[in-house]
Amino acid sequence: MVFRRSWLRAGMLSAAFTLLLWGGAAVTPAHAWQYTTQPGDTFYSLGQRFGLPWTLIQGANKVEPSNLSTGKVLNIPDVFTYTVKSGDSLFLIANRFSSADWAIKELNGMTANDIYPGQVLKVPTGIGRQTQTASSGVSQSDVDLLARLIEAEASGEPYEGKVAVGAVVLNRTKSGKFPSSISGVIYDPLQFTPVRNGMINRPASALSQKAAQDALTGWDPSKGALFFFNPGKSSDGWMRQRVITTQIGGHLFAM
What we know:
Blueprint: E1 19-20, E2 26-27, E3 33-36, H1 43-50, H2 54-61, E4 73-76, E5 78-83, H3 90-96, H4 101-108, E6 120-125, H5 132-136, H6 140-154, H7 159-175, H8 182-186, H9 193-197, H10 206-216, E7 227-229, H11 237-240, E8 244-248, E9 251-254
Antiparallel strand pairs: 1-2, 3-4, 5-6, 7-9, 8-9
Helix pairs in contact: 1-2, 6-7, 6-10, 7-10
C-alpha cells in the first residue's frame, strides 16, 4: 500500500499468412521486403515505392539519410492491420509485433499515445524498440525498481491496476510535492509498505516489468492519482479523505 517484436521476402519470393494472436485476434501482413539499394535511391523515393513514411524505413534500419549508399541492404518493415482490444496500449502492441511505439504512431499519423478498443491500426514489425529508458533518461535500475514495486504492491491485481501503481510513482515525480526521481519517490520515508518490509527486494515478474514500461510510455489508468490504497486492508482515515480518481481491482486511486 502507498502512504502518503521477421517474416522476410528475399528478392521477389512471397508468401501470405495470417498470424493469430492470443485472444483470438487476427492480423494479416500487407507486405515484407528486403531491398538492396540502387543508384539514385533515397529514403524518400523508397518510401514512395513501398507506400511507407520514409522516416519509418530510415528509423527501422538506423541509417542516417546522408549515409544511404548503393548496395545497402535494407529491411522494409512488414505491415499488419490490428484491431485494438480493451487493455491494449501502444507499448503492448509494439512488443507483441516486435515493433516500436514511435513506428506505430508514424505509420498511423498519430501524435499521441492514446488508442481505443475497436480502433484499426497499421502496425510495422521488425523495427526494434527504441526503449523508453533511452529516450526519457530513466536508468535501467530505476525501471527495475519500479517493476519490483509494482510486483510487491499489485501482484494479485489486474494488469491495468499494475500499470496504475507505476503511474502513481511517475505522477509523484512530476508533482513537485515528492522527490523528482523514481528511486527518490519509492524510497521516500514511510511511503510504501514493501520498502519497509523488504518485499521491494524481490524480483519482478515479466508482467510487472511490462507494466512498468507501459507506465513509462505514458499510460495512466490511475487518472493522475498520487496515492493508492486497498480499503479492505487499510484503516488510514487521512487516506480515506482523499479525492478518489478511480478504482481498479482492489485498489482505490486518489489525489
